[in-house]
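U., I forgot to send this yesterday:
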Amino acid sequence: MNDRITGFVLKQSDYREADVILTVLTKEYGKLSFVAQGVRKMTSKNAGSIMPYTKTEILFDYNETKTIFRLKNARCKEYYRSMHEDIAASSAAAVAAELINVLTLQASSDMTNSDEYAFLDIVFSKLDEGYDPTLVLSLLFVDMLELAGLLPDVDACVTCGNTHVVTVSPKDGGFLCQEHAEEHHIPFMKTEDLRRFRLLCKAGLEKIGIVNRYIEGDMKDLQYLVDILYIHADIQLKSMDFYMHLHTII
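Result:
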């Protein structure tokens, strides 16, 4: 009774006349759903504490047999104001939240999603600090692809093992040598682009401070990683479409 947990609000959906359903990634129980009653009313005390892409503290009664809970009270612990005020950063936050939401199962007694929670903590913090949103997202995709068993092979050609590689193939799942790139009619990449992509795939979010010193985010790298997810996991992210479009106009 009266369990108090901390979590990131991944999604908020209108429900009934004045309620919302929240999807929250919690530190203690993994991904949970909550009904927040009356928060769309002007008099609601909880409305400002459950905004998407914020860290909030929630009071509720946990029951391992339930899949959705009634939110009693909420208190925002971290709003990430700078992130929310920047359109590129806030759009990246939306992508991060949707990515983790679709790749994370509803919590069970033996699942806490601690890795995903740590990833989102880094993502929101770095976006709020002003890190390049494309670099942050690229490193998040690397970590999430690794959790899903889809991390691209960037040590050698995925087809023959040749270490002299010339391009990346999302369909094949990693680097290709000249012979197999030509066989699949895939354009060659510059050496510096191959090195940058390999660095991303070897680093992950944990080493973002080091990576940030040497490279900038590149939309081509992010697109390769997104394509791997789309091709091999059959997942589409609506927020990614907007993020990609945004970068054609800013």
